[in-house]
């Protein structure tokens, strides 16, 4: 018999786990949330990778570095002259830590307000929905749940002959804690993390080289968006080398020597710091006892059905440890959907309308299918695009790079996908997500009145362009 009984036990306090626990408490389920992360002060630090060493702190650094870059390069056009601009890296990092800590504390208050029992330690699923809880302080104990949710998240991939030391060779966590701007900064991987962190340190003065093993940049996007992004990244000084397969990285005399191969042969580069950003994998190590009965996929993820059910009755899994995109908002909505399924019998998430964002400058955001996918699937479509340079607001802001592209079904005009590269793309995509969720058409976006002058007018005009009737550009 377990020490305690609960309606729901959640293992993992990231965006999926904590959102699920809060929703469960709202629905009067007696809930236990287990999360092992602690801050540098030894206090609980719920929020997972996203809040502590991912989405949130990286955006804090991106914003700080963006302000610094704009002061140096853009403000003179507005008539603002500033001299002797310097970046206090230590203060920037401290601000980032304060943002994270404030959100950690806010979550703990929410757990208390919702009467969620919180255990700061490790949870392991045993047989029969019993969970072994090993706290940072105190004795190990057990809890039995009518339902158990696995939400342990993910950890970074490593590559052979490149050992993370946390100082010279770092992962997504170490890159957030540099105490000075590296003169030369190397990045293995030109995905979301690589591009965002490369942007941060490039703006602050680093010479940044990104080594990407794939032969194309951001292969999930259409060529026109990638071309626009590559052009802007090059202007910003990001040196992106495609088809570059790293074979080793070693630290010598306080620098990192990286060997890689591309179509031209073998090469070697020396950096002051190196970031390894080659993707993430499900964090299942230590999560499951041998007799837990949970089935894993060939990729090491937990095998679930469309409703996030595992191979064991009343055991569920969500977020990065299951199929689908490794996105915080996807995990949150999965967790909430599962809880509502448990409590009410109804719970749903539409994987076709999950937005993606890369927080570079310009931002890149998309939802639904790309032209490449539509062609591969043989779906007849029509497309319309509109540049931010043709909007009054974009020009007035001084940030007019990029465009909006809308894809609609050729026969019934249903929205199939939208891609945006440009200012505030992360916010503008929400309108398109809503339209798609309600099975809207390009005509719906085109008929909705958009305020003038705004960046959202580019969405409006791109929808008009689907039928070649954009007002502010030649069709």
From TrEMBL:
Which cofactors are reported in the record for this sequence? Answer: FAD
Disulfide bridge map: 50-55
Segments traversing the membrane = none
* One Pfam family of this chain: Pyr_redox_2
User: Which residues of the sequence carry a binding annotation for NAD(+)?
Assistant: 189-196, 212, 279
Single Gene Ontology BP term? 2-oxoglutarate metabolic process
Q: Which residues form the active site?
A: 452
Places the protein is found = Cytoplasm
Residues binding FAD: 59, 123, 320, 326-329
Q: What class of enzyme is it?
A: oxidoreductase
Keyword entries, A-Z: Cytoplasm, Disulfide bond, FAD, Flavoprotein, NAD, Nucleotide-binding, Oxidoreductase, Redox-active center
Record field: catalytic activity: N(6)-[(R)-dihydrolipoyl]-L-lysyl-[protein] + NAD(+) = N(6)-[(R)-lipoyl]-L-lysyl-[protein] + NADH + H(+)
User: Which EC numbers characterise this protein's activity in its record?
Assistant: 1.8.1.4
Q: What else is known?
A: The active site is a redox-active disulfide bond.
Q: Which family does it belong to?
A: Belongs to the class-I pyridine nucleotide-disulfide oxidoreductase family.
What is the designated name of this protein? Dihydrolipoyl dehydrogenase
Write down the species. Answer: Wenzhouxiangella marina
